[in-house]
Design brief:
The protein contains eight helices and 13 strands. The chain is of the alpha+beta class. Helix 1 packs across helix 5.
């Protein structure tokens, strides 16, 4: 019998104190053949040399112009078999990107749909080690977690199903960018804060390398950067509040539902400086938290105003990432 999923508050607490999981889909491109490893080495921004079976590395697939085609994890299964893992819905793009540059190499590509068990909380590595599944450590800043991958992956015995909304809250607090939200075809790696985790400046050439290297040489001076946003409530809730305000409830603050307000505009000194890409409720802060790309001349912390069509302006603060480290 399937146990009842944990509530938002219970999930958030388990992520901080124990272990909890959710099962999501993910897309996988399997690369096999004599040249599989060397081929991916020429395509990825990360240095994949020396990956042993079961090890993984975060990387970017870039366009020739240096924009991000995909934020991926490359997993070595053997010398002639590797997996390129990406968020669900982006497998076609990754497969096409790799196929387009596969010239005169002995490497085959096969697209597959897998499942990913997202374990979060301090006990995640301990639990993952007992499963025997392919496990990838999570690098969300300030968050302990492991992702278990398999075509039929399921929650380990004894691990409760969590509320996806709480996982989203923790992702935003940590500043982890998401494909389709913070990472699009217009994104530059330095804007998203991904370079330290995904780019090697000592490996050989790969598509898009020129822009990444040029920006690095100029001090990472990009027009905008991913920032955190903390949104004030019209009627502040207790900072220990266990759940987000419910729209339409008698005790809910007269606050727009920012989780659905993607594209709401941030302004500083009456000048538009960015737009929200993700938003969620933070029990720890007792406030809405969000991610946004903000103009580089806005230096956090900075007071701002958030405006959404048909809503009154709301006070907000632009902060460095991760958000919780700034409070």
């Amino acid at each position: 019998m399937t146990s009842q999923p944990l509530s938002f508050a219970e999930t958030y607490a388990a992520c901080e104190e124990d272990v909890v999981g959710v099962v999501v889909g993910c897309d996988v491109v399997r690369v096999t053949g004599r040249d599989a490893a060397s081929y991916l080495q020429t395509q990825c921004s990360q240095d994949l040399a020396g990956l042993s079976a079961g090890e993984s590395a975060e990387s970017l697939l870039l366009s020739p112009q240096g924009r991000v085609d995909a934020y991926v994890r490359v997993v070595a299964l053997g010398e002639e078999e590797l997996l390129v893992v990406v968020a669900a819905g982006f497998g076609d793009a990754v497969h096409e990107r790799l196929r387009r540059f596969r010239l005169r190499v002995k490497a085959e590509l096969a697209q597959e749909q897998w499942r990913c068990v997202m374990l979060r909380g301090p006990r995640s590595p301990e639990v993952a080690a007992l499963t025997g599944r392919l496990s990838l450590p999570v690098t969300w800043p300030g968050v302990v977690g492991v992702d278990l991958l398999a075509p039929d992956a399921e929650l380990p015995a004894g691990v409760a199903t969590g509320d996806p909304g709480a996982f989203e809250s923790i992702r935003i607090e940590s500043g982890e960018p998401s494909m389709g939200r913070e990472i699009t075809a217009r994104t530059i790696a330095q804007e998203a804060g991904l370079v330290a985790r995904t780019v090697s400046f000592t490996k050989g050439c790969y598509p898009g390398q020129e822009l990444v290297a040029r920006i690095d040489a100029r001090g990472d001076n990009v027009p905008k950067r991913l920032r955190g946003v903390v949104v004030s409530l019209v009627e502040p809730l207790d900072p220990g509040s266990a759940a987000p305000p419910v729209s339409g409830s008698d005790d809910a603050p007269s606050e727009p539902d920012l989780a659905n307000a993607l594209g709401a505009v941030l302004s500083v000194a009456a000048r538009d400086v960015g737009e929200l890409t993700s938003a969620a409720w933070s029990p720890r802060l007792g406030a809405m938290v969000a991610l946004a790309y903000v103009r580089r001349d806005v230096v956090p912390p900075a007071r701002a105003v958030l405006t959404e069509d048909g809503r009154a302006p709301i006070d907000a603060e632009i902060v460095e990432l991760p958000i919780v480290a700034q409070r």
